[in-house]
C-alpha cells in the first residue's frame, strides 16, 4: 500500500475506487465499506483507495472538545493495508479544505487528484464547508463528473448501529468484550516500555509500564485480562490501568505483568490487547494486602487464558 500524506504528493496516479470517511476506528462498519471498495476496484481493474484525514475534522472547530483517538496512526494504516487497499490518502484537514464548497471539494480533490471512478461512503458521510456535502450531494456531483456512488446503510450488530462514537463510550466504560464485537478485534494500547517504581518486581510480579497517550481514549482504572505482544510474539498477561493509589500518587499508566516471561523490556515497544475488565482499581491498606490481591488477579487471569486460549 502506498501512503500519501499530502495532496501535493498525489500526481498522475491511476484511476481509483475510493472509500470516503474518517475511518477513525476502522470498525466492522468501516471494514465493510473498505472491503467493498477493494472488491469493486479489482473487478474493474482500478486501484483501490481510502481517503481519510490525518487529524480529526473537529480539531479546527472552536469551543469543541477534542475527540480522543481509538487507533494510533500507524495502527490505522496497518489495518487498512491488511484489507487490501492500494492507496491511502492520509491528508491533513486544513482550513482551506474545511472552507471548500462541496462542489470544489469534489472537483479539486476527488476528480483532479484522486481520478475517482467510483466512491463508497457511509450513510452519514459529510464534506465541504459546514458539512454541506451529503451523500445526496455526492450523488449529484458523481452524475456531473461521471463517477459512481455507493452509500452504505447503517451497519448494525444486534440492532445497534456500529459507530466510533459508540465504541469510544464502550472503552471509557470498560466494556472491552463489547468493544471487540463492534471493532472486530481487541482494543489495544501500545508504546515504549518505561521505568516504573519497580515495586512489582520486589513482590514477585514484575511489570512492563507504558505511559498513557492523552490523545487516545482509554479504559477506566482497573485490572484487565490482556494479551501482550512483543517482538511479534503474543503472551497471556494481566494489566492494571490506573494511578497506583496504594503506594503513592502517580500519573495514569498501563502496567502489564506477562506470564512466564523474564526478558527485560525497558525501551522496547509492546502492544497490550484488552480482553475484559475483572475489577476496578482500589486503594489497599498495605502493600501486603495489595500483593495478595495481585496474586488473586493473576490466578484469575491465568484461568481465563487457559479456558479461552487462542
UniProtKB/TrEMBL annotation:
Major enzyme class: transferase
UniProt-recorded name of the protein: Riboflavin biosynthesis protein
Enzyme Commission code: 2.7.1.26, 2.7.7.2
Catalytic function, reaction form: FMN + ATP + H(+) = FAD + diphosphate; riboflavin + ATP = FMN + ADP + H(+)
InterPro entries, alphabetized: FAD_synthase, Riboflavin_kinase, Riboflavin_kinase_bac, Riboflavin_kinase_bac/euk, Riboflavin_kinase_dom_sf, Rossmann-like_a/b/a_fold
The organism of origin for this protein: Lentihominibacter faecis
Domain of life: Bacteria
Record lineage: Bacteria, Bacillati, Bacillota, Clostridia, Peptostreptococcales
Family: Belongs to the ribF family.
Amino acid at each position: 500500500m502506498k501512503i500519501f500524506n499530502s495532496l501535493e504528493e498525489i500526481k498522475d496516479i491511476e484511476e481509483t475506487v475510493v472509500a470516503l470517511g474518517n475511518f477513525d476506528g476502522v470498525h466492522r462498519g468501516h471494514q465493510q465499506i473498505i472491503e467493498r471498495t477493494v472488491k469493486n476496484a479489482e473487478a474493474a481493474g482500478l486501484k483501490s483507495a481510502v481517503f481519510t484525514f490525518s487529524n480529526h475534522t473537529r480539531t479546527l472547530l472552536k469551543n469543541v472538545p477534542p475527540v480522543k483517538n481509538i487507533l494510533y496512526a500507524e495502527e490505522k494504516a496497518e489495518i487498512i493495508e491488511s484489507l487490501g487497499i492500494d492507496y491511502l490518502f492520509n491528508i491533513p484537514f486544513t482550513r482551506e479544505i474545511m472552507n471548500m464548497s462541496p462542489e470544489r471539494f469534489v472537483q479539486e480533490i476527488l476528480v483532479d487528484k484522486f481520478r475517482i471512478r467510483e466512491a463508497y461512503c457511509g450513510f452519514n458521510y459529510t464534506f465541504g464547508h459546514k458539512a454541506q456535502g451529503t451523500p445526496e450531494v455526492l450523488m449529484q456531483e458523481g452524475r456531473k463528473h461521471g463517477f459512481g456512488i455507493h452509500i452504505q446503510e447503517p451497519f448494525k450488530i444486534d440492532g445497534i448501529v456500529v459507530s466510533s462514537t459508540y465504541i469510544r463510550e464502550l472503552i471509557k466504560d470498560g466494556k472491552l468484550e463489547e468493544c471487540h464485537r463492534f471493532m472486530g478485534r481487541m482494543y489495544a494500547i501500545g508504546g515504549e516500555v518505561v521505568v516504573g517504581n519497580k515495586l512489582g518486581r520486589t513482590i514477585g510480579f514484575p511489570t512492563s509500564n507504558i505511559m498513557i497517550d492523552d490523545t487516545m481514549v482509554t479504559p477506566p482504572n482497573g485490572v484487565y485480562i490482556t494479551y501482550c505482544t512483543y517482538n511479534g510474539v503474543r503472551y497471556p498477561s494481566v494489566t492494571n490501568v490506573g494511578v497506583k493509589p496504594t503506594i503513592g500518587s502517580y500519573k495514569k499508566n498501563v502496567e502489564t505483568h506477562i506470564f512466564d516471561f523474564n526478558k527485560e523490556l525497558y525501551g522496547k515497544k509492546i502492544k497490550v490487547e484488552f480482553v475484559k475488565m475483572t475489577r476496578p482499581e482500589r486503594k489497599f491498606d498495605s502493600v501486603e494486602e495489595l500483593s495478595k490481591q495481585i496474586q488473586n488477579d493473576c490466578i484469575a487471569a491465568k484461568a481465563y487464558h487457559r479456558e479461552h486460549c487462542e
